[in-house]
Structures are given as C-alpha cells and as structure tokens.
C-alpha cells in the first residue's frame, strides 16, 4: 500500500489506516529525517444517508506514536454554521462519539469536522457528506380550492438535487378524515440511477398523473373538485425500512343560496359559504358585498365551517377565505331581482291557490252535509221498513 516517489523523495501510503500511525524515518547517506504520522478516522452512521428527523452519530478515532492528545472538536454544516453536538469521550482519548440534532432536508451537503489540539499543535479539517432524502414541501401543507375547479397536488423530492445513489420506493394515500382508513392512490419507485416509475392504484377515485410534470415530482391532478375530494393526501417514501412523509390537506369551499333563484321584491334570501373541514385559528370566511358598506360584511367565528348572510336586495356578493390577512380563494354569488311579471305570477299564484283551497274546503263541507243528510234519510227508511215488518197484521171483516 505504499510507493516511493524517487524524484521528490516522498513516500506515498495508500488506503491509510489507523495502524499506519507511527514514526517514519528517511535515511540518505549521513542524513536522517523522522516524521511522526498522526492518523484520524471519522465514520458517520448510515454511511451519511439519512431521512428527515434522524439524528446522526459521528465517531472520531485517532492513533499516534506519542501519547494521544486531548482533542477539541467543532462541527460545521453545509452552510458553514456551527453545529452543536453531544460529546461522549472515553478515558483513553482514542475514541470520540458525537450525537447530533435531528436533521432536516436543508442540512444536505458537505460538512466539516475541525480537530484542534495545542500539544502537539493540530488544526485539521475532515470533510464528510451528509445526504437527507426527503420532500422539499413542508411537513404539512394546506391547499384551498373552490367547487368545480381543477387542482394539482405535487410533492417535490430532492433525490436528484443531493445526487442520491440508492433506490427507494413510496406511495400516495388519501383519507377524508383523520381517523378514516386510507386509500392508496398510486405507488412509485426510484432506481439507483434516478429513474422514476409510477403506477395508479385507485380506480374509483378519479384523478390523473400529468405527463408534463417536472422531474423528481409526485403529482396528481383533480378535475371538477367537490367536497368528496377534500381530506389529507399523504405522500410517503421508504428507504431501508425507514420512512419519511409529507401531507397536503385539501380544503374545498362552495357557496349557495336559500331559497335558490331570483329574489322577489320584499322577500329575503340567505347566502351560505362553507368549507369541507374546520379552519385553523388564523383562517376565517368572510361575506362581502361588492360596492357595499361595512354593514355588508359578515365574518365567520373561529373554527366555524360556514358563514351565512341575509340578503333583501339584489347585488353581487363575494365570499373570501382569508389566512393571516391573505385572501387564498374567493367565490362570488350574484343575487338577481325577480322581474315584475314573476312577482305578479307569484301573487296571482298565491291568490289563486288561496281561492282554490277555499273552494275545496267549501266543496268538502257541502259534500259532507249532503252525505250526512242521505245517511239520515236512509236510516229513517230502514227503521220504517223494520217497523212495518214487525207489525204486519191481517184484519178480516166479520
């Protein structure tokens, strides 16, 4: 594992090991030069391949021909920021074990382990790679949509960005409520060469996988969204029996009116704006009349799923879903005034209906009286026939 470079008088040692530490002496004629070789060995758990929320463990070992120095170890992440670590040191100073905090996707990159000693003087940097495979999405993302709109849900994987060289698998599940059984929508696998393959698993849940989506992205497209599409969409990846996941919660909003249709003059209508699931505390619904006043604004209370407003005149109303003073989505409802002839038809229909009901009542009363009279007459005739039958005699002239 060694070779001598004669032109420069150098000794090259390949595949350096801890056991190679010691004193190396070069003799040339009457000249003798000795060099002490101090060897460090740094290892990282899982070979530097992690998933989010996993805590790495670093092990630094040293060997030297002299008494081993007491080392001061400092870690720097890929952003050149100092990283706090819990140090476990054995009594012989030969082995140092450092436990780091839980990692995030943004921690991927080249890290530096700086080793320092005053006696002997050591200032040595050891570089090592940290790769955190995961999603570039936040852990839980909330997305809002209106009824009948088209929604694209996507999860961006970072395997190409960090040059991940091992294969892994994953799947996309959906459940409408937190405690409901999940339904698998699709599964995917990524090869060690970075090739991505997806397979649709659900036939009753209508969605499509866009062909034009960007690389290293898991994506589904929902057409004509309704309340049944709301819920949690969980994308999960698996690597060596370990898992990472990212969720998107889809909240759907719709507006309606009671009663439906044009508003007759003098009548009232209730406009209803509602969402498919409770909103977080920093989010609310708000009805607002276009070109209206402050009196025409109605807000939902905390965690309410709907807000109603009573309307007595025609106009255009907007319902906004507001998160931290930011309008996420809006739906409008146009209240139209009923034409005059419709009002007359309604009045006439009401009057005609009243007259018809009155006539039916009178007819029922007359029919009832007539039926009662016929019944009484029939009873009298029956009694008379019975009397005649019971008292029938024959009188003869004597």
Automatic annotation (TrEMBL):
UniProt KW keywords: Membrane, Transmembrane, Transmembrane helix
The UniProt record lists the keyword Membrane: yes
Transmembrane segments annotated in the record for this chain: 341-371
Positions of the Ig-like domain: 266-330
SMART domains: IG
Protein name: T-cell surface glycoprotein CD4
Domain of life: Eukaryota
UniProt key word Lyase: no
């Amino acid at each position: 594992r060694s070779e001598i470079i004669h032109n420069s008088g150098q000794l090259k040692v390949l595949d350096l090991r801890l056991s190679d530490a010691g004193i190396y002496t070069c003799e040339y004629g009457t000249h003798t030069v000795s060099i002490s070789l101090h060897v460090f060995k740094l290892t990282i758990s899982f070979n530097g391949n992690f998933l989010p929320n996993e805590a790495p463990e670093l092990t630094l070992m040293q060997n030297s021909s002299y008494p081993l120095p007491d080392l001061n170890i400092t870690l720097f992440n890929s952003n050149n920021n100092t990283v706090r670590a819990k140090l476990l040191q054995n009594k012989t100073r030969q082995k140092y074990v450092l436990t780091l905090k839980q990692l995030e996707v943004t921690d991927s990159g080249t890290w530096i382990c700086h080793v320092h000693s005053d006696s002997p003087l050591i200032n040595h940097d050891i570089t090592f790679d940290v790769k955190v495979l995961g999603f570039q999405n936040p852990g839980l993302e909330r997305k809002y949509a209106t009824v009948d709109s088209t929604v694209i849900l996507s999860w961006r994987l970072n395997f190409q960005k960090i040059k991940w060289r091992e294969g892994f698998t994953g799947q996309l599940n959906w459940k409408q409520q937190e405690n409901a059984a999940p339904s698998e929508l699709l599964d995917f696998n990524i090869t060690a060469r970075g090739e991505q393959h997806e397979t649709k698993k659900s036939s009753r849940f209508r969605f499509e996988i866009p062909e034009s989506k960007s690389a290293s992205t898991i994506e589904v497209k929902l057409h004509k969204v309704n309340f049944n599409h709301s819920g949690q969409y969980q994308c999960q990846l698996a690597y060596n029996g370990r898992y990472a996941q990212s969720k998107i919660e889809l909240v759907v909003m719709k507006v309606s009116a009671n009663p439906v249709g044009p508003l007759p003059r003098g009548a009232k209508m209730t406009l209803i704006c509602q969402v498919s699931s409770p909103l977080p505390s920093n989010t609310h619904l708000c009805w607002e009349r276009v070109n209206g006043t402050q009196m025409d604004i109605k807000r939902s209370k905390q965690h309410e799923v709907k807000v109603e407003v009573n309307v007595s005149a025609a106009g255009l109303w907007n319902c906004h879903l507001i998160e931290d003073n930011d309008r996420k989505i809006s739906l409008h409802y146009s209240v139209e005034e009923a034409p005059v002839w419709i009002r007359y038809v309604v009045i006439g229909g009401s009057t005609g209906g009243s007259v018809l009901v009155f006539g039916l009542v009178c007819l029922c009363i007359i029919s009832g009286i007539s039926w009662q009279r016929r019944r009484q007459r029939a009873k009298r005739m029956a009694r008379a026939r019975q009397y005649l039958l019971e008292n029938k005699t024959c009188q003869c002239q004597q």
